[in-house]
Amino acid sequence: MKAQSQFCTTAILNEVSDPNRDYVQEGRTVERLDRVRRVGIEDAHRRIAQMEAIVADFDRTANELGDWIKAEENRTRIQDPAHFAYSASATAMTKRREALKRSRETLMRSIDELKRPLADVVLE
User: How far apart are CA 37 and CA 42, in angstroms?
Assistant: First the structure.
């Protein structure tokens, strides 16, 4: 999608640099640039919303895993992960929860990177 957007923008900018076109074409070019810009902004907002939904799902799943880990520890009556008889199930769930937390942080950084240019657009 990014390559297509860049192509459209480049094609429109090439039209702008043509000194032989009239003012009607200039208006159309400006409208096209605005439309390309709007579509890019709408796409970024859509992607941010999707990523935020995934982050919420990760949070929910990590909380559920925490509850399951506690239940497993209570069932086995061993809360120390270093104990030789600590539940393999609790160990696997702990690793999964930590992986979800890392993925969540990566997505949050991606969301921040997407939001930064949008804040500049809103300020303009």
Answer: 9
| Burial (CB count <10 Å: 0-12, 13-18, 19+), residue 13 | exposed
Distance, in Å, from the CA atom of 13 to the CA atom of 89, rounded to the nearest integer, reads: 59
**Biggest distance spanned by C-alpha atoms of the chain:** 83
Q: What is the pLDDT of residues 21-49, one digit of tens each?
A: 555 566 677 777 777 788 888 888 999 99
Domains held by the chain: number:
1
The residue assigned the tokens 């919420």 is 56
One-letter-per-residue 3-state SS of 55-78? HHHHHHHHHHHHHHHHHHHHHHCC
- Domain hosting 115: range is 2-123
Count the Cβ atoms, other than its own, within 10 Å of residue 72.
Answer: 20
Of 69, 55, 60, residue with least CA distance to 102: 55
Of 118, 120, 119, 123, nearest to 41 (Cα)? 118
List all residues 6 or more positions away from 91 whose beta carbon is below 8 Å from its beta carbon: 81
